[in-house]
Design a protein that fits this description.
With about 280 residues, this protein is an alpha/beta fold. The chain is built from nine helices and ten strands. The chain is globular.
Length: about 280
């Protein structure tokens, strides 16, 4: 089972490997820089070498990175869009330097200009970035929860983006369970999960699905609320996650938790719950 968490790079990027090991992760996700600002420091050759060595020694076959929070590649505002694209280009370069397999990117918001405008901006941003960087790292577009102005909460919107890309082979998908449920996809029930998987396969193709973000949802079905909850304590529940992680078409994918750390527990708690639900084999 490729199961892990989003771990900190505080102190040095190589320390993320140790933190993943301490949690018993078999894969993990990181930010390669401060996720809450635009500024960043250049990766040092020594830090890159140590990260690569420790990762190799630990035996991690798949490592995932996530874009910082501020970039919005769906933005219709030229200045912020350009800044977001530059950020994406830099992140692809950093991931390649570190030998990271996947970079997850939120699709962002059209800021009230409509899905068609947002979709066009995403296509332009991704094409620009992949023309600038001949990346070995695959870019993964993450589904959104359906918040006001968001792009990519419906599979039809994701399909429309993929079909227009010039570098389709370099782009895959990351599905977030909380986002799916909040956007109206019933991944909680057995029938709903089957319908969701079949719908994704029909519109996009399961071969494009590379990573799962496992997060329970504070909001109900179709709530459009992007609020992650501990596994089993939200609206999807333990039974829902048992079906998700054991589904024959999903069980071999890298799975990453991005759950809260609060009075109810932390990553170790949620990883333990998921391991207890996994049927092995």
């Amino acid at each position: 089972m490729l199961l892990g968490a989003h771990v900190s790079i505080s102190g040095s990027i190589a320390k993320s490997v140790e933190r993943a090991q301490e949690l018993g992760c078999t894969t993990f996700q990181i930010f390669t820089r401060n996720p809450r600002g635009w500024r960043y420091t250049k990766l040092k050759d020594e830090d890159v070498e140590v990260f690569r060595r420790r990762r190799s020694e630990a035996g991690y076959e798949v490592v995932v990175a996530h874009m910082p929070y501020l970039p919005n590649i769906a933005s219709p505002v030229k200045e912020s869009w350009e800044r977001s694209v530059r950020s994406l280009i830099e992140e692809l370069r950093r991931c390649d330097a570190l030998g990271i397999e996947y970079l997850v990117c939120h699709l962002g918001s059209h800021l009230g200009k409509g899905v068609e405008v947002g979709t066009a901006q995403v296509v332009k941003a991704v094409d620009r970035a992949l023309e600038e960087v001949d990346a070995k790292c695959q870019l993964l577009l993450e589904n959104m929860a359906g918040q006001k102005g968001s792009v990519g909460s419906r599979f039809e919107e994701v399909k429309a983006i993929l079909e227009r890309l010039s570098h389709r082979d370099k782009v895959g998908i990351c599905l977030d369970t909380c986002h799916l449920y909040a956007a109206g996809y019933d991944v909680k029930s057995a029938a709903g999960l089957e319908d969701t998987i079949a719908g994704f396969d029909e519109l996009i193709g399961l071969d494009a699905l590379k990573v799962l973000h496992l997060n329970d949802s504070k909001g109900g079905l179709g709530s459009r609320l992007d609020r992650h909850e501990h596994i089993g304590l939200g609206k999807i529940g333990k039974d829902g996650f048992k079906r998700i992680i054991n589904h024959e078409k999903l069980r071999k994918l890298p799975m990453i938790i991005e759950t809260p750390e609060d009075e109810h527990g932390d990553y170790s708690r949620d990883l333990k719950v998921l391991r207890s639900l996994y049927e092995g084999g």
